[in-house]
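Figure 3 (text version): structure tokens given as input.
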């Protein structure tokens, strides 16, 4: 039976869709809003003297860790339509790791990109 063609063991992966302009805008807007909130957090925490918040000072290692996670999450939001499962993991995992590494009130800032990625992956 040498005339019978042998099917390949795995099918080739379909080409990945390139992000559209709306995807890039969603990722950029998500990152911008989150970074503005990170910059405004010390001012907002100082305005309410009733309950002290554990907010990292801008420029410290903890602040930069939060900023890097927010930028990574914004990049994953831009890919949420093309690769929804991977994007959801890429958005949620850094938020979890950040909450373990940098305790404090800044971990809540990472929920906004998670919500946007869930929405974008759901409507993809």
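Below: residues designed for each position.
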């Amino acid at each position: 039976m040498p005339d019978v063609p042998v099917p390949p063991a795995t099918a080739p992966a379909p080409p990945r869709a390139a992000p559209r302009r709306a995807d890039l805008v969603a990722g950029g807007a998500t990152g911008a809003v989150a970074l503005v909130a990170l910059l405004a957090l010390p001012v907002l925490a100082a305005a309410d003297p009733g309950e002290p918040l554990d907010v990292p000072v801008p420029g410290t290692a903890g602040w930069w860790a939060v900023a890097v996670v927010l930028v990574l999450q914004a990049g994953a939001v831009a890919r949420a339509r093309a690769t929804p499962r991977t994007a959801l993991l890429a958005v949620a995992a850094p938020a979890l790791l950040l909450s373990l590494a940098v305790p404090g009130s800044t971990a809540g800032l990472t929920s906004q990109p998670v919500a946007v990625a869930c929405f974008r992956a759901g409507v993809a």
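The radius of gyration is 20 Å.
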